[in-house]
Every structure is written in structure tokens, then in C-alpha cells.
Amino acid sequence: xxxxxxxxxxxxxxxxxxxxxxxxxxxxxxxxxxxxxxxxxxxxxxxxxxxxxxxxxxxxxxxxxxxxxxxxxxxxxxxxxxxxxxxxxxxxxxxxxxxxxxxxxxxxxxxxxxxxxxxxxxxxxxxxxxxxxxxxxxxxxxxxxxxxxxxxxxxxxxxxxxxxxxxxxxxxxxxxxxxxxxxxxxxxxxxxxxxxxxxxxxxxxxxxxxxxxxxxxxxxxxxxxxxxxxxxxxxxxxxxxxxxxxxxxxxxxxxxxxxxxxxxxxxxxxxxxxxxxxxxxxxxxxxxxxxxxxxxxxxxxxxxxxxxxxxxxxxxxxxxxxxx
Length: 324
Ligand SMILES: NC(=O)c1ccc[n+]([C@@H]2O[C@H](COP(=O)([O-])OP(=O)(O)OC[C@H]3O[C@@H](n4cnc5c(N)ncnc54)[C@H](OP(=O)(O)O)[C@@H]3O)[C@@H](O)[C@H]2O)c1
Fold this sequence. Notes:
Blueprint (H helix, E strand, L loop, with lengths): L1 E4 L10 E4 L9 E11 L1 H8 L4 H7 L12 E9 L11 E5 L8 E5 L3 E3 L6 H5 L2 H14 L7 E5 L4 H12 L3 E6 L4 H6 L4 E4 L12 E6 L6 H6 L1 E9 L4 H10 L2 E5 L2 E5 L6 H12 L7 E6 L3 H9 L6 E5 L5
Parallel strand pairs: 8-9, 8-11, 9-10, 11-12, 12-14, 15-16
Antiparallel strand pairs: 1-2, 3-4, 3-6, 3-16, 4-5, 5-7, 13-14
């Protein structure tokens, strides 16, 4: 089968589109014929090792241990292992499988998959898992979101941000989206009640306060985020500039709880129940993936290059041609 492979850390130039062995199925796994995958910052960090901790935390010190990229996938089940209970051949599935999704086939434990939302194409479904799970777990688990709360999403126009706006609305929050001028209409179209142009206004200096702030992109010092929180407000860092990520890493998973305000980060995990909940939100019409660009599998390097520029509007998808 054809797949994207890399044997050394580096820019997208190190990626090869080549013929590799089709994966062999283990007892607890599902073999998926992949129709689409999507690109995440996770793939970028795995490729470039720009965050040194990736090397220390099992990625491989000098070169990548796992030579394959692609976490988010959607496709059709081709075969199932003997102990697989939830899926059968021909099922349409989507999921987050860590590595190996930029290929014609992949194997994954059934716990990494769910049935594809009925109202989405494979391309749309592949755009969902990692970004939507990050938004859901950041808002609900770390952010303790409640109906009627004032919620601000910083970096509302990327993969995580576009899901965060919609998921916060589905919880009944009043949502403020922070993005650049070219993305303001998009933010309104997915339900944001207020939109702030970060090139004209620094929301941390406006005097307005929010019950929950999810930082998906950009950068503000922690003291500035804290100022923009209500007395019992919660700040959740999902991503953003390296400085923002390092601050959260250095200070631990829950950084502080001072004067009633909580400051912390989310480290999202694939969770089948949560993916099922996201599927329900999608099928109920409350959440939809926003796709910026599509690239064929052979041009995965281009897709990563585009994501790496940091200005994707929603998700970047890789399409896998299925000849048979
Ligand atoms: N914690 C976790 O478990 C977890 C999981 C997934 C992702 N992440 C992290 O979350 C972050 C976001 O991921 P993503 O998939 O949403 O990335 P993305 O899609 O690449 O984000 C791109 C978007 O960010 C916007 N942006 C860039 N600079 C900004 C700024 N200064 N202020 C506000 N918006 C800005 C861009 O809009 P403009 O060009 O218009 O500014 C663009 O729409 C990444 O750092 C990623 O590593 C964390």
C-alpha cells in the first residue's frame, strides 16, 4: 500500500510517499481502508520535534521511533480481529489512532474508533477527532462549563477553536471568539455571540471578564488571562505559542487556584465515549467540521507545510483515493 513515511526529524521535506507493507491485523484490532485523514499540530510536532520533550517522552531521542504520521482518520472497516466486538466489515468509522493514518490502510484497537456520523462525508469525519476532543475535554472537564456562562475562545479560527466555539454553544454558553479580521465572519457563522479582532483589541485589557477562557492559539501572559477572569473563573490552556505551552508544562496540570480563580491546561485523550458524544452533537446539527483545504495523500507534505504556517482556517484534510 502507499503511505507517508519519515525516518528523520525535520521539515515536511523529509516526508516520503512510498510503497510499504499493508499492516497485519492483531486480535483486538480493526483494519481500516482509509478514505481521509486530517492534519493536526500533533503531526507537525511529531515530524519536526520542535518541542524537545517529544524526543524525551518516547518519540525517539535522535530519530523518530514511529516512522508514520496521521492520527485522525475516517474510512471503511475491511476486517476485524477475533476479539473485536463493536465493529464489522463494511462499517464506516472515524477515530484517533495516534500514528499511521496517512496511508491507504491502518490497523487500530477498536477503542480508538467510533461509527462515522451519518451526516458527514469521510473527509468531514476525518476532520473531527483530535480537535473536537480537545475542545470538549478542555471546556467540559477542565473548564467545568455551564449554561449561561461567559466563555471566551482565544484562537477561535483553527481546528480546535472552530470546534470549541460550537461545543461551548451546545453547552448553552455565551461565546466570545477571538480571531483575526479575515476569520470574523466564519466565527459568527459557527455561532459566536461576540467576535473580537485580536489585531485591534487586546481582550485582556478591555476590563471585560469571562467565567471560562480556552486558549487554543496565540499568546498572553498568565497574569493577563487571570485579569480577564471573573472571581471564580477558569483558564484552560489547550495550545498556542511555545511560550504559552511551556508555561503550562512548567507549572503542572493545575497551575494555581488563587483567590478562587483556576489556571491550568488540558491534555486531551482519545476517549470512545467522548467521540460518541461528539458524533451525537454532529448528528443533531449542533457541531460541524470546518474544512479549509484538502490535499491528496501524495501531497501530505504540502498539507503539513500549510498547517505549519499557523494560519489554517478550520481543518486541513488529506484525501486517500480508493481505486478498488
Ligand atoms: N492540549 C492538547 O491536548 C492539544 C490537542 C490538540 C491541539 N493542541 C494545540 O492546540 C493549538 C491549536 O491547535 P489547532 O489545531 O487549532 O491549530 P491550527 O488549526 O493550526 O490553528 C491555526 C489558527 O490559529 C489562528 N491564530 C494564529 N495566531 C493567532 C493569535 N495570535 N491569536 C488568535 N488566533 C491565532 C490562525 O488564525 P489567523 O491566521 O487568522 O490568526 C488560524 O486560524 C496548537 O498549539 C496545538 O498544538 C493541544
